[in-house]
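Innexin (Ascaris lumbricoides), 354 aa
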Amino acid sequence: MSSQIGAIVSVNALMGRILKQPMGDLADRLNSRITVTDFVNQYCYVHGTYFVPLDKGLDFDATERRRFPITYYQWVPYVMAVQALLYYLPRLIWKCFCTISGYDLIGAIRHMEHIWDEVRGNEDKFKARMTSFEKQSAVYIWDGILLARRKQSYHLALYYVAFTALQTLNAWLQFVWLNELLQSATYSFWGPSIILDLYRGIDWQISGHFPRITHCDFSRRRPASIQLDTVLCVLHLNIYYEKLFLFLWFWMFFVAMVSTANFFFWTISTCVTRTARRTIIQYLNEDNRTSVEHFLRLLGNDGLFIVQQISINIGDLPASYLTRAMKTVAETWDIAVNDGLEGRSLLQKGNKAV
C-alpha cells in the first residue's frame, strides 16, 4: 500500500512540475520586497507580456507599446491538449459513420490483418491459402456487404469521402489556428520565414519571435496615487517552444497537405470507379471477361471500395487472395439466390465460423 501511495504522490508531483510554467525572474527597476515580486510574477503570468526590442525605448502610448503581445506562453499545454483531442475527433466520427452505414470497415480490416498473418505463417502453398481465404475472410467480408445492403445502406464510400473532407477541414483549421496563435507581426507564412531568419542570423532580439525577455506593465497603488511600473520578464520555456512549434508547424502543414490529397483521391475514386475495376480485373487475371463482369456487378461500388481499403491498408497480395476467394463466394451466393436459399449465411459453409 505504501509503495502505491508513494507512486501516486510521485506521479502527481511530476505532473505538477511538468505543467507548471515558471515565468522567470523579474528584473525590476524599483526596490521591491519579495512579496511584491511574487505578486508581479503571478500578475504578468496571467495578464501576459509584450515584446519591445531591448535597444529601443518604450513608447508612452500604451497601445503602441503593446503592439506585439505574447499571449500564447501560458496556454501552450492546454492548446496542445485541445489539438490532440481535435485530431482524434475525425476518427471518432468515422466510427460513427461506420455504425450508420451498417458495415464495420475498421473491424473488417483488422480481421483481414489477423487472417493474413495466420495464413502467411502457416500456409506455404497457393491452393491452401486460397482455401483459407474462401472459408474465413471471403465469407466474412461478403456476409458483411450483404447485411449492409439488407439495411438499405449502399453509401459506405460516400461516408468515407465525408470523413476525409472533415479530416481535411480539421487539419487546415488547426494549422491556421497554430499560425494565428503565434501572432507573427512580420510574416504570414510563419515556419519557413523563421527558418530563413535563423539561417540569416536574425535572432529573437530583432524579429521578436519566441522572445526570451519581454515587458510587463502593472499598476502600483500608493496613498492618493497609482503608479505604472514596467518590469522585464524572462521566458525560459521559449527556448524550447521555438523548436517545438517549428516542428509542429511543418508537421501540421504536412498533415494538411496529405489530408487534402487523400480527400481528392477518394472523391475521384468514388465518382470514377474505372481504376478500382481495373485493379480487380488484374487481381483475378482471368480470360473469361463475362464471368469477371458478372462478379463486378455482384461486388458493386461498396464492395469495390472495401477491396480498395484492404489493398491500401494491408497490401496488394492479400487483397488479390481475397478478391479471388470473394469471386468464388459471390458466385456460390448467386447460385443460392437463384435456388431460393439466399437466407442462409455463407459463414455456415466454412469450417470455422467468424
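The CA atoms of residues 114 and 312 lie 16 Å apart. The two ends are 44 Å apart (CA to CA). ok done for today
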